[in-house]
Amino acid sequence: MGGAPVAEAVIDLDAYRHNLRTLAKVAAGAEVMAVVKADAYGHGVIQCARAAREAGVAWLGVATLQEALALRAAGDAGRVLTWLAPLGADFATAIEQDVDVTAASADQLGEILSAPSTRRPRVHLKVDTGMSRNGVAGADLDELVRAAAIAHSAGSAEIVGIFSHLACADEPADPSVDRQERAFLEAVDQLRAAGVEPQLRHLANSAATLTRPSAHLDLVRVGIASYGLSPAPAVGSAADFALRPVMTLRSSLALVKQVPAGSGISYGHTYVTDRDTTLGLVPVGYGDGVLRSLSNRADVWTAGGRRPLRGRVCMDQLVVDLADAQARRGDRVVLFGPGEDGEPTAQDWAEAAGTISYEIVTRLGGRITRTHVGD
Ligand SMILES: *Cc1c(COP(=O)(O)O)cnc(C)c1O
């Protein structure tokens, strides 16, 4: 329907499974949680969840209850943890659907315990060990631990795990990482002292999984690395970590034309050609998640080489300079991919836009067709 898509994100599920198995080996002894929030970082949650289970992953992690329920609706029956719920979240349905939930405060534990569900809730306690984001800290931790211990011994909840999140794991030498790790182990001790032995202590994201074995503990929560992108580009590239980028974003030239020297390109004429040249029009823009901040800063691959973006990225289209390349309307354009054939990577685009690769892959818009291969 509608013929050729204007652009397509090709998702290599073989690469995704390879990355998950690689990370499982790196964290041997710990369980792996594949983090598939935000539509699997833009890669398609249903297909990625299925592939993750095929790769032997015991746990899936998502932010919201809705994301967890979508996994159940798609037939996933394995362990799923959700960690971010606003006041009024439907814990009853999540518990009924066998989803592990998170208590980030004593109040939230109370909401979980009072949810009208026939099952016993399985709860992970979220501790703020220094990121100052989600989770309990300080005196509130005592209160949560006490309430959790009471619920656990009364059998009104199963306290499965305790976890925290690192602020600077992508900078392994940052002293905050040691501090957070110590604070986390103290919180675990506090829980034990209250009579609860958690099965799962978890702290590591992708960066800590790859750079900090002491943080592996019982389970690692891997997101970006599973999609084949480096969580810590200053420490190592995806290839250095034996990861294979999963997403390739491709399109085709919608128009090829000659313009004379002195031609202003796109809104505001932020680029003016300094010679006669050939321009290529790519039918993808910021409405599709190609950040406008990439204007005049990034390359795509087409007609046998890297071609620079010229002028501003528009909502639906962008312009590249083909110089004297032999190019034709319909020629394949690779916006980013694994980089093996010379095309830019999501990491290259992130550096050009002053952001992180997470944002490059997660922001793709609804007009991009996703094609899963290696299924
Ligand atoms: C998103 C998220 C992760 C995964 O982080 P990556 O850096 O992508 O590996 C892990 N844990 C929590 C709590 C998260 O929100």
Outline, from the CA principal axes?
Answer: elongated
The percent of residues in helical segments reads 25-40%
The assigned structural class equals alpha/beta
**Beginning-to-end CA distance, first to last residue:** 23 Å
User: What pattern of helices and strands is seen along the backbone?
Assistant: EHEHHEHEHEHEHEHEHEEEEEEEEEEHHE
Radius of gyration, in Å, reads 23 Å
Report the biggest beta sheet as strand number plus sense, adding barrel if it closes.
8 strands, parallel
Number of helices: 11
Q: What strand line-up does the widest sheet have?
A: 4-3-2-9-8-7-6-5
Question: Residue ranges: pLDDT <50 for 5 or more in a row?
Answer: none
What hetero molecules are in the model? pyridoxal-5'-phosphate
Q: What portion of the residues fall into strands of 2 or more residues?
A: 15-25%
- Average pLDDT works out at 97
Q: Would you report the number of β strands?
A: 19
Task: Give me some keywords for this one.
375 residues, alpha/beta, eight-stranded parallel sheet, 29% helix, binds pyridoxal-5'-phosphate
Describe the overall structure.
- The protein is α/β, with parallel strands linked by helices and 375 residues long.
- It contains 11 helices and 19 strands.
- The chain is elongated, with a radius of gyration of 23 Å.
- Helices cover 29% and strands 23% of the residues.
- It has an 8-stranded parallel beta sheet. A 6-stranded mixed beta sheet has the order 16-15-18-10-1-19. The protein has a 3-stranded antiparallel beta sheet with strand order 11-14-17, with no helix packed on it.
- The site of pyridoxal-5'-phosphate has 12 residues, from strand 9.
